[in-house]
């Protein structure tokens, strides 16, 4: 009888020991996983536009399916090449505008770009002309930025339906976020930039362009 009790106790001790090591090893595993977390890659969602039915589709592939135009997967904040080499509106900004224009047309609204890419020389001329009109560089910069600050010479800004059609531009202000387009200045109803990824919310507007430089 005593022998049986001893065997019972030894068996219990062994089971407890094994259980203890099992818990110890799995908890070590948990801890070590925390120290070496599995890297998760963010999924970039490319938004594509169908000009035949003006619908937007999203894909996690790098390319839009045949026949759809890409609108991109992020805000357009920097052009790919040095500013001196840029001669046109950034292709994705152009695609976003073309998509918005087609969607606006199906709502009976005509959108058009009145000024997109501007050379440094052109922007410099416009800034200097604005100084004459407004009386100082500070006042001028609220309306036309100096060439080294404006996004127009980078192909990253468009003026839409200026000067005669604020109503058309209002359509873009209300609907542009679907296409990654935002009005960015409270004093310029015509100026739009690709400030967000398509489908995100546009940030609050700055009072004017000069405030953004601060
Ligand atoms: Zn502008």
TrEMBL record:
Pfam families the record matches: VanY
Domain D-alanyl-D-alanine carboxypeptidase-like core: 89-187
SUPFAM superfamilies, per database record: Hedgehog/DD-peptidase
InterPro entries: DD-CPase-like (IPR052179), VanY-like_core_dom (IPR003709), Zn_M74/Hedgehog-like (IPR009045)
GO molecular function: peptidase activity
One of the protein's GO biological processes: proteolysis
Protein name: Unannotated protein
């Amino acid at each position: 009888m005593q022998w049986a009790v001893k065997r019972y106790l030894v068996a219990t001790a062994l089971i407890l020991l094994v259980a203890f090591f099992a818990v110890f090893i799995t908890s070590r595993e948990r801890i070590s996983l925390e120290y070496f977390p599995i890297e998760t890659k963010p999924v970039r969602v490319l938004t594509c536009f169908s000009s035949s039915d003006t619908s937007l589709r999203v894909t996690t592939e790098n390319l839009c399916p045949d026949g759809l135009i890409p609108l991109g997967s992020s805000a357009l904040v920097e052009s790919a090449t040095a500013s001196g080499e840029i001669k046109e509106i950034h292709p994705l900004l152009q695609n976003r505008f073309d998509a918005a224009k087609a969607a606006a047309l199906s709502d009976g609204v005509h959108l058009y770009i009145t000024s997109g890419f501007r050379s440094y020389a052109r922007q410099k001329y416009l800034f200097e002309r604005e100084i004459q009109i407004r009386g100082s560089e500070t006042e001028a910069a609220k309306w036309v930025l100096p060439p080294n600050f404006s996004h127009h010479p980078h192909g990253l800004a468009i003026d839409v339906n200026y000067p005669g059609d604020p109503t058309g531009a209002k359509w873009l202000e209300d609907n542009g976020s679907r296409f990654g387009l935002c009005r960015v200045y409270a004093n310029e109803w015509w100026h739009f930039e690709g400030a967000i990824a398509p489908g995100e919310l546009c940030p609050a507007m700055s009072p004017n362009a000069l405030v953004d430089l601060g």
